[in-house]
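Hey forum,

I'm writing up a methods section and want to include a predicted complex as supplementary material. The small molecule is flavin-adenine dinucleotide. I've pasted the protein sequence and the SMILES. Can someone with a working setup run it? I'll credit the forum in the acknowledgements.
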Amino acid sequence: MPKAPKWFNDTVETLLGSKMPRVKVTETEYLNPFIKRIRLQGELNDWHCHAGYATGVRISDTEYRNYTPSFDDVENGIVELIVHLHGDGPGSRYMNNLSIGDELKLIMPRGKKVYSEDVKQYFFFGDETTLAMACALNERAKKNKALLHFYFELDAENKNIPAILGLDNYSVFSKNKTLANVELVNQLPMFQMPGYKEATFIVSGNATSVQTVRRAIKQYGVSGSIIAQAYWAAGKTGL
Ligand SMILES: Cc1cc2nc3c(=O)[nH]c(=O)nc-3n(C[C@H](O)[C@H](O)[C@H](O)COP(=O)(O)OP(=O)(O)OC[C@H]3O[C@@H](n4cnc5c(N)ncnc54)[C@H](O)[C@@H]3O)c2cc1C
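Reply by user p_vandermeer:
Happy to help. C-alpha cells for the complex are below, copy them as they are.
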C-alpha cells in the first residue's frame, strides 16, 4: 500500500467517517512469539467481507498495511486478525504492540473473492501471512462440504500453528524449498488426485513462491481458476 503524507491520510479518514469502522482491541493471544491473534470489536456498518478480502490498518501516520480477517461477525461487531510478527517492519511492530483497549480504524474489506459455493475442490498455497485467509476459507469449505487442502511453507517455529488454529487437511514445508521449486511443486500428490484440473488454486504469501507455484500449476494445463496474489516480497515494503 502506498505511503502518503500524514495530512492526506488524516483528510481521507475524516472524509470517509463511518466508512472506516472504529474498533477496539478486546482480546490478544500469542499463538507463539511470532503469530498473534487479535480480536477487534466495534460498529461494523456496511462491512462485507468475502473470504480472501483484506482490510487496511493505519500502522503509522503515513502508512497502511493489509491484513485479512480470519473471522468476522457483523451482528456482534467482531473482526479477528492473525498476524505474522516477522519483526522487520512497522506493521509487524504495530501489531505486536497492540493491546486490549487500543483503538484503531479499519479500511472496508476489499480484494479478490477466492471462494465460490459452486467449486467443490480447492488447493491452497501460502505462508504465515495467509493463515488468516486459510481459517476464513476453512470454515466456509466445511459448511459447503468442499475439499480443501492447504500447502504451507512455514518457519520451523511455526510448523504447529495450523494445528493450533484447528486446520486439519494440510501439509507443511520448510521455507525456500518445495514451494520455491517448480519441479518439487509438480511432484505434489494433488496432481494425482481425481478432479484436480477443475479445482480452484489459491496461491498467496511470498511473492517468489507465488510465481513459482503458479508456473508449476500452469504446466499441468488446469482448467480451474488460479487465484494468485503476492502478500509480501523480500526487500519491499507494504504490498
Ligand atoms: C491482500 C493482503 C492480505 C494480507 N493479509 C495478511 C494477514 O492476514 N496477516 C499477515 O501477517 N500479513 C498479511 N499480509 C502481509 C502483510 O501486509 C505484509 O507482510 C506487510 O509487508 C507487513 O508490513 P510490515 O510493515 O511489517 O513490513 P514492511 O515494512 O512491508 O516490510 C519490511 C521488510 O520486511 C519484509 N517482510 C514483510 N512481510 C514479511 C513476512 N511476513 N515475513 C518475512 N519478511 C517480511 C519485507 O520484505 C521488507 O524487507 C497481507 C498482504 C496482502 C497484500
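Some notes you might quote in the supplement: The chain has a mean pLDDT of 94. The chain has two domains: 6-105, 121-232.
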